[in-house]
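pinned: reference chain
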Amino acid sequence: MGVPAAVGHLDADCFYISAERVRNTFLLGKPVGVLGNQGAFVIAKSYEMKAAGVKTGDPIWEAIVKCPHGVYLKRDFRWYEVLSRLMLDVVREFSPEVEYYSIDEFFFRVPSDSERSLQETAEVMRHRILQQVRVPVTVGIARSKTLAKLISDQAKPFGALALVDPEAERALLDRTAVQEICGIGERRAKRLAEYKVFTALDLALANRKLIRSLLTAVGEALWFELNGDPVLPLYSQRPPHKMLSRGGAIGKPSADFNYIWGWLVRSLERLIEELEYHRVCAGRLETWVMHYDGQVGVGKVELNGPTDRFDLLLEAARLGLRRAWLPRRTVARLNLVATHLQWPGSVQRGLFDPPAERAETLARLKREVNDRCGRFALRSGATLFVNEFYKDEAYSYEVCDVRGKICF
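pinned: its C-alpha coordinates
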Protein backbone atom coordinates (compact mmCIF):
# COMPACT_ATOMS: atom_id res chain seq x y z
CA MET A 1 0.00 0.00 0.00
CA GLY A 2 1.16 3.56 -0.62
CA VAL A 3 1.81 6.09 2.13
CA PRO A 4 1.62 9.91 2.02
CA ALA A 5 4.81 11.80 1.18
CA ALA A 6 6.55 12.37 4.48
CA VAL A 7 9.85 13.20 6.15
CA GLY A 8 11.11 11.62 9.36
CA HIS A 9 13.39 12.92 12.12
CA LEU A 10 15.23 10.52 14.41
CA ASP A 11 16.88 11.89 17.55
CA ALA A 12 18.76 9.78 20.10
CA ASP A 13 17.65 10.26 23.71
CA CYS A 14 20.49 11.67 25.88
CA PHE A 15 22.87 10.25 23.30
CA TYR A 16 26.20 10.67 25.09
CA ILE A 17 24.70 9.16 28.25
CA SER A 18 23.05 6.33 26.31
CA ALA A 19 26.36 5.61 24.55
CA GLU A 20 28.17 5.31 27.88
CA ARG A 21 25.45 2.97 29.14
CA VAL A 22 25.87 0.70 26.11
CA ARG A 23 29.36 -0.26 27.27
CA ASN A 24 28.72 -0.02 31.00
CA THR A 25 25.30 -1.23 32.16
CA PHE A 26 26.19 -0.18 35.72
CA LEU A 27 25.17 3.34 34.65
CA LEU A 28 21.58 2.36 33.80
CA GLY A 29 19.07 4.24 35.94
CA LYS A 30 21.76 6.33 37.66
CA PRO A 31 22.34 10.09 37.40
CA VAL A 32 25.14 10.41 34.85
CA GLY A 33 26.93 13.44 33.46
CA VAL A 34 29.40 13.61 30.59
CA LEU A 35 32.13 16.24 30.90
CA GLY A 36 33.86 18.33 28.24
CA ASN A 37 36.35 21.21 28.23
CA GLN A 38 39.02 19.15 29.95
CA GLY A 39 36.51 17.86 32.49
CA ALA A 40 35.42 21.31 33.67
CA PHE A 41 31.81 21.46 32.42
CA VAL A 42 28.80 19.20 31.95
CA ILE A 43 28.03 18.79 28.24
CA ALA A 44 25.36 16.09 28.63
CA LYS A 45 23.29 14.72 31.49
CA SER A 46 20.83 11.88 32.04
CA TYR A 47 17.20 12.50 32.85
CA GLU A 48 17.97 11.46 36.44
CA MET A 49 20.67 14.11 36.71
CA LYS A 50 18.45 16.69 35.03
CA ALA A 51 15.82 16.02 37.70
CA ALA A 52 18.44 16.95 40.32
CA GLY A 53 18.76 20.38 38.73
CA VAL A 54 21.98 19.95 36.75
CA LYS A 55 22.01 21.88 33.46
CA THR A 56 24.12 21.54 30.34
CA GLY A 57 27.05 23.93 30.72
CA ASP A 58 27.18 23.76 34.51
CA PRO A 59 30.75 23.73 35.91
CA ILE A 60 31.61 20.40 37.52
CA TRP A 61 31.95 22.01 40.95
CA GLU A 62 28.37 23.29 40.76
CA ALA A 63 27.02 20.02 39.34
CA ILE A 64 28.51 18.03 42.23
CA VAL A 65 26.73 20.28 44.74
CA LYS A 66 23.39 19.78 42.93
CA CYS A 67 23.91 16.07 42.35
CA PRO A 68 26.55 14.70 44.77
CA HIS A 69 25.66 11.07 44.00
CA GLY A 70 26.05 11.49 40.25
CA VAL A 71 28.54 9.64 38.08
CA TYR A 72 30.69 12.02 36.01
CA LEU A 73 32.60 10.75 32.96
CA LYS A 74 34.97 12.23 30.38
CA ARG A 75 33.49 12.36 26.89
CA ASP A 76 34.61 9.94 24.20
CA PHE A 77 33.52 11.27 20.82
CA ARG A 78 35.23 8.46 18.93
CA TRP A 79 32.98 5.90 20.67
CA TYR A 80 29.93 8.08 20.12
CA GLU A 81 30.63 8.22 16.39
CA VAL A 82 30.88 4.42 16.22
CA LEU A 83 27.33 4.13 17.59
CA SER A 84 26.16 7.03 15.43
CA ARG A 85 27.28 5.20 12.30
CA LEU A 86 25.51 2.04 13.43
CA MET A 87 22.29 4.03 13.84
CA LEU A 88 22.81 5.51 10.38
CA ASP A 89 23.07 1.99 8.92
CA VAL A 90 19.72 1.06 10.49
CA VAL A 91 17.98 4.20 9.22
CA ARG A 92 19.24 3.41 5.72
CA GLU A 93 17.48 0.06 5.93
CA PHE A 94 14.21 2.02 6.00
CA SER A 95 15.04 4.81 3.56
CA PRO A 96 17.48 5.27 0.68
CA GLU A 97 17.55 9.03 1.31
CA VAL A 98 19.01 9.94 4.70
CA GLU A 99 20.54 13.18 5.96
CA TYR A 100 23.23 12.74 8.62
CA TYR A 101 22.26 15.96 10.40
CA SER A 102 24.43 15.53 13.48
CA ILE A 103 26.06 12.82 15.55
CA ASP A 104 22.70 11.88 17.10
CA GLU A 105 20.13 13.22 14.62
CA PHE A 106 19.00 12.06 11.18
CA PHE A 107 16.37 13.18 8.71
CA PHE A 108 15.02 10.62 6.24
CA ARG A 109 12.50 10.38 3.42
CA VAL A 110 9.75 7.82 3.98
CA PRO A 111 9.43 5.75 0.77
CA SER A 112 5.99 6.18 -0.78
CA ASP A 113 5.82 2.46 -1.61
CA SER A 114 6.39 1.34 1.97
CA GLU A 115 4.23 -1.57 3.12
CA ARG A 116 4.02 -0.06 6.61
CA SER A 117 1.94 2.88 7.71
CA LEU A 118 3.82 6.00 8.83
CA GLN A 119 3.12 5.23 12.48
CA GLU A 120 4.33 1.64 12.06
CA THR A 121 7.49 2.90 10.37
CA ALA A 122 8.27 5.19 13.32
CA GLU A 123 7.68 2.43 15.86
CA VAL A 124 9.60 -0.28 14.01
CA MET A 125 12.58 2.01 13.40
CA ARG A 126 12.69 3.00 17.07
CA HIS A 127 12.66 -0.61 18.26
CA ARG A 128 15.11 -1.78 15.59
CA ILE A 129 17.75 0.71 16.74
CA LEU A 130 17.21 -0.18 20.38
CA GLN A 131 17.57 -3.87 19.52
CA GLN A 132 20.65 -3.56 17.28
CA VAL A 133 22.50 -0.56 18.74
CA ARG A 134 21.01 -0.53 22.27
CA VAL A 135 20.47 3.24 22.11
CA PRO A 136 16.98 4.64 22.85
CA VAL A 137 15.74 7.06 20.19
CA THR A 138 12.65 9.10 19.37
CA VAL A 139 11.19 9.18 15.85
CA GLY A 140 8.86 11.84 14.47
CA ILE A 141 7.31 11.74 10.99
CA ALA A 142 5.50 14.65 9.33
CA ARG A 143 4.95 16.49 6.05
CA SER A 144 8.13 18.59 6.40
CA LYS A 145 11.50 18.56 8.16
CA THR A 146 10.57 21.35 10.58
CA LEU A 147 7.33 19.61 11.59
CA ALA A 148 9.11 16.26 11.96
CA LYS A 149 11.67 17.76 14.34
CA LEU A 150 8.97 19.48 16.40
CA ILE A 151 7.10 16.16 16.66
CA SER A 152 10.17 14.22 17.79
CA ASP A 153 10.96 16.92 20.37
CA GLN A 154 7.41 16.64 21.74
CA ALA A 155 7.45 12.82 21.75
CA LYS A 156 10.65 12.42 23.81
CA PRO A 157 11.84 10.24 25.43
CA PHE A 158 11.63 6.97 23.49
CA GLY A 159 8.66 8.15 21.49
CA ALA A 160 7.39 7.29 18.02
CA LEU A 161 4.79 9.54 16.44
CA ALA A 162 3.64 10.10 12.85
CA LEU A 163 1.49 13.18 12.34
CA VAL A 164 0.31 14.25 8.89
CA ASP A 165 -3.28 15.31 9.61
CA PRO A 166 -3.54 19.14 9.34
CA GLU A 167 -5.84 19.43 12.37
CA ALA A 168 -3.47 17.38 14.53
CA GLU A 169 -0.59 19.54 13.28
CA ARG A 170 -2.43 22.70 14.30
CA ALA A 171 -3.00 21.32 17.80
CA LEU A 172 0.71 20.54 18.09
CA LEU A 173 1.76 23.97 16.85
CA ASP A 174 -0.70 25.69 19.19
CA ARG A 175 1.00 24.19 22.27
CA THR A 176 4.54 24.84 20.99
CA ALA A 177 6.28 28.10 21.90
CA VAL A 178 7.74 29.85 18.86
CA GLN A 179 11.29 29.72 20.26
CA GLU A 180 11.11 25.91 20.24
CA ILE A 181 11.23 25.99 16.43
CA CYS A 182 14.72 25.19 15.16
CA GLY A 183 16.01 28.47 13.72
CA ILE A 184 14.05 30.77 16.05
CA GLY A 185 16.32 31.99 18.83
CA GLU A 186 15.60 34.33 21.72
CA ARG A 187 16.30 37.47 19.70
CA ARG A 188 13.95 36.46 16.88
CA ALA A 189 11.29 35.36 19.35
CA LYS A 190 11.32 38.80 20.98
CA ARG A 191 10.90 40.45 17.60
CA LEU A 192 7.99 38.19 16.72
CA ALA A 193 6.36 38.88 20.09
CA GLU A 194 6.02 42.55 19.08
CA TYR A 195 3.60 41.31 16.40
CA LYS A 196 1.71 38.95 18.75
CA VAL A 197 3.45 35.84 17.41
CA PHE A 198 3.99 33.67 20.49
CA THR A 199 3.41 30.10 19.31
CA ALA A 200 4.36 28.03 16.31
CA LEU A 201 0.72 28.21 15.20
CA ASP A 202 0.82 32.01 15.38
CA LEU A 203 3.79 31.95 13.01
CA ALA A 204 2.10 29.50 10.64
CA LEU A 205 -1.05 31.65 10.48
CA ALA A 206 0.80 34.97 10.15
CA ASN A 207 1.12 36.84 6.89
CA ARG A 208 3.95 35.27 4.90
CA LYS A 209 5.31 38.61 3.70
CA LEU A 210 5.39 39.91 7.26
CA ILE A 211 7.41 36.89 8.38
CA ARG A 212 9.83 37.38 5.51
CA SER A 213 10.28 41.05 6.39
CA LEU A 214 10.98 40.14 10.03
CA LEU A 215 13.05 36.97 9.59
CA THR A 216 14.29 37.15 5.97
CA ALA A 217 14.10 34.15 3.64
CA VAL A 218 15.01 31.81 6.52
CA GLY A 219 11.82 32.71 8.37
CA GLU A 220 9.76 32.46 5.20
CA ALA A 221 11.05 28.89 4.67
CA LEU A 222 9.98 28.02 8.22
CA TRP A 223 6.54 29.50 7.50
CA PHE A 224 6.14 27.17 4.50
CA GLU A 225 7.43 24.19 6.50
CA LEU A 226 5.03 24.79 9.39
CA ASN A 227 2.18 24.87 6.89
CA GLY A 228 3.15 21.44 5.61
CA ASP A 229 4.91 22.64 2.46
CA PRO A 230 8.39 21.00 2.48
CA VAL A 231 10.81 23.58 1.07
CA LEU A 232 13.94 22.71 3.04
CA PRO A 233 16.06 20.20 1.10
CA LEU A 234 17.05 16.85 2.51
CA TYR A 235 20.82 16.51 2.09
CA SER A 236 21.71 12.88 1.51
CA GLN A 237 25.10 14.16 0.32
CA ARG A 238 26.91 16.85 2.24
CA PRO A 239 27.02 20.24 0.42
CA PRO A 240 30.54 21.54 -0.36
CA HIS A 241 32.19 23.39 2.50
CA LYS A 242 32.59 27.14 2.34
CA MET A 243 35.11 27.00 5.16
CA LEU A 244 36.69 24.55 7.58
CA SER A 245 37.65 25.32 11.16
CA ARG A 246 39.40 23.62 14.04
CA GLY A 247 40.30 24.80 17.54
CA GLY A 248 38.64 25.61 20.84
CA ALA A 249 39.65 25.98 24.47
CA ILE A 250 43.39 25.53 25.08
CA GLY A 251 43.19 23.43 28.23
CA LYS A 252 44.19 26.04 30.78
CA PRO A 253 44.33 29.77 29.96
CA SER A 254 47.94 30.80 29.42
CA ALA A 255 50.21 33.64 28.31
CA ASP A 256 53.14 31.34 27.57
CA PHE A 257 54.04 31.50 23.88
CA ASN A 258 55.25 27.89 23.61
CA TYR A 259 52.05 26.57 25.19
CA ILE A 260 49.83 28.76 22.98
CA TRP A 261 51.83 27.89 19.86
CA GLY A 262 51.62 24.17 20.69
CA TRP A 263 47.84 24.39 20.83
CA LEU A 264 47.69 26.30 17.58
CA VAL A 265 49.82 23.68 15.83
CA ARG A 266 47.55 20.94 17.22
CA SER A 267 44.58 22.75 15.66
CA LEU A 268 46.48 23.13 12.39
CA GLU A 269 47.21 19.40 12.17
CA ARG A 270 43.53 18.66 12.76
CA LEU A 271 42.57 21.26 10.14
CA ILE A 272 44.91 19.73 7.57
CA GLU A 273 43.30 16.33 8.25
CA GLU A 274 39.99 17.86 7.15
CA LEU A 275 41.42 19.63 4.12
CA GLU A 276 42.89 16.31 2.95
CA TYR A 277 39.72 14.36 3.78
CA HIS A 278 37.45 16.75 1.86
CA ARG A 279 40.08 17.18 -0.90
CA VAL A 280 40.14 20.97 -0.81
CA CYS A 281 42.87 23.59 -0.44
CA ALA A 282 42.78 26.81 1.59
CA GLY A 283 43.27 30.18 -0.07
CA ARG A 284 43.25 32.09 3.22
CA LEU A 285 43.99 31.14 6.82
CA GLU A 286 42.41 33.06 9.69
CA THR A 287 43.68 32.84 13.27
CA TRP A 288 41.13 33.76 15.94
CA VAL A 289 42.37 34.39 19.48
CA MET A 290 40.01 34.89 22.41
CA HIS A 291 41.84 36.37 25.38
CA TYR A 292 40.88 35.53 28.93
CA ASP A 293 39.43 39.03 29.43
CA GLY A 294 37.05 38.51 26.47
CA GLN A 295 38.92 40.53 23.84
CA VAL A 296 39.14 38.84 20.45
CA GLY A 297 41.95 39.23 17.94
CA VAL A 298 41.89 38.05 14.31
CA GLY A 299 44.85 37.54 12.01
CA LYS A 300 44.01 36.93 8.33
CA VAL A 301 46.71 35.71 5.99
CA GLU A 302 46.24 35.46 2.22
CA LEU A 303 48.23 32.53 0.82
CA ASN A 304 50.24 32.76 -2.39
CA GLY A 305 47.97 30.05 -3.75
CA PRO A 306 45.41 27.60 -2.34
CA THR A 307 47.20 24.82 -0.45
CA ASP A 308 46.89 22.01 2.10
CA ARG A 309 50.64 21.85 2.78
CA PHE A 310 51.67 21.84 6.42
CA ASP A 311 54.82 23.95 5.91
CA LEU A 312 52.98 26.76 4.11
CA LEU A 313 50.01 26.78 6.46
CA LEU A 314 52.34 26.68 9.47
CA GLU A 315 53.98 29.94 8.41
CA ALA A 316 50.55 31.47 7.77
CA ALA A 317 49.43 30.40 11.24
CA ARG A 318 52.58 31.91 12.76
CA LEU A 319 51.92 35.25 11.06
CA GLY A 320 48.22 35.09 11.95
CA LEU A 321 49.00 34.51 15.62
CA ARG A 322 51.40 37.45 15.61
CA ARG A 323 48.60 39.66 14.29
CA ALA A 324 45.85 38.31 16.54
CA TRP A 325 47.51 37.80 19.93
CA LEU A 326 47.94 40.76 22.23
CA PRO A 327 51.48 40.24 23.60
CA ARG A 328 51.76 38.79 27.11
CA ARG A 329 47.95 38.63 27.39
CA THR A 330 46.38 35.41 28.67
CA VAL A 331 44.68 33.33 25.95
CA ALA A 332 41.62 31.12 26.59
CA ARG A 333 40.64 29.91 23.09
CA LEU A 334 42.24 29.54 19.65
CA ASN A 335 40.61 28.81 16.31
CA LEU A 336 41.99 28.35 12.82
CA VAL A 337 39.62 28.93 9.89
CA ALA A 338 40.47 27.90 6.33
CA THR A 339 38.48 29.90 3.75
CA HIS A 340 38.48 30.50 -0.02
CA LEU A 341 38.47 26.72 -0.50
CA GLN A 342 39.23 25.27 -3.94
CA TRP A 343 39.47 21.82 -5.45
CA PRO A 344 43.08 20.71 -6.04
CA GLY A 345 42.52 20.44 -9.81
CA SER A 346 41.81 24.17 -10.02
CA VAL A 347 44.85 25.21 -7.95
CA GLN A 348 47.88 26.85 -9.51
CA ARG A 349 51.03 26.53 -7.41
CA GLY A 350 52.61 29.72 -6.10
CA LEU A 351 55.66 30.89 -8.02
CA PHE A 352 57.74 31.46 -4.88
CA ASP A 353 56.57 28.47 -2.80
CA PRO A 354 59.27 26.09 -1.56
CA PRO A 355 59.55 22.83 -3.57
CA ALA A 356 56.56 20.59 -2.98
CA GLU A 357 58.28 17.19 -3.19
CA ARG A 358 59.76 17.24 0.32
CA ALA A 359 56.54 18.53 1.90
CA GLU A 360 54.43 15.94 0.08
CA THR A 361 56.79 13.12 1.07
CA LEU A 362 56.65 14.13 4.74
CA ALA A 363 52.86 14.44 4.63
CA ARG A 364 52.54 10.98 3.08
CA LEU A 365 54.87 9.47 5.69
CA LYS A 366 52.93 11.15 8.48
CA ARG A 367 49.62 9.75 7.21
CA GLU A 368 51.03 6.24 6.85
CA VAL A 369 52.50 6.19 10.37
CA ASN A 370 49.35 7.58 11.97
CA ASP A 371 47.10 5.20 10.04
CA ARG A 372 49.17 2.30 11.36
CA CYS A 373 50.03 3.48 14.88
CA GLY A 374 47.13 5.76 15.85
CA ARG A 375 46.02 9.34 15.40
CA PHE A 376 48.78 11.86 16.26
CA ALA A 377 51.33 9.11 16.92
CA LEU A 378 53.55 11.25 14.67
CA ARG A 379 53.03 14.98 15.06
CA SER A 380 54.84 18.31 15.12
CA GLY A 381 57.44 18.84 17.83
CA ALA A 382 55.73 22.13 18.69
CA THR A 383 52.96 20.13 20.38
CA LEU A 384 55.41 18.74 22.97
CA PHE A 385 54.54 21.77 25.08
CA VAL A 386 50.97 20.44 25.38
CA ASN A 387 52.03 16.80 25.68
CA GLU A 388 49.88 16.16 28.77
CA PHE A 389 46.79 16.60 26.64
CA TYR A 390 47.86 13.84 24.24
CA LYS A 391 48.42 11.41 27.11
CA ASP A 392 44.68 11.35 27.85
CA GLU A 393 42.93 9.29 25.17
CA ALA A 394 39.57 10.89 26.03
CA TYR A 395 40.78 14.07 24.31
CA SER A 396 42.22 12.55 21.15
CA TYR A 397 38.95 13.06 19.30
CA GLU A 398 36.64 16.10 19.23
CA VAL A 399 32.99 16.25 18.22
CA CYS A 400 33.85 18.46 15.23
CA ASP A 401 36.11 15.65 13.97
CA VAL A 402 33.00 13.55 13.33
CA ARG A 403 32.88 13.55 9.55
CA GLY A 404 29.81 13.68 7.37
CA LYS A 405 27.81 16.01 9.60
CA ILE A 406 25.88 18.81 7.94
CA CYS A 407 26.74 21.27 10.72
CA PHE A 408 30.50 20.84 10.35
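why pinned: Residues 6-12+80-226 form a domain with the Alpha-Beta Plaits fold (CATH 3.30.70.270). The chain has a mean pLDDT of 93.
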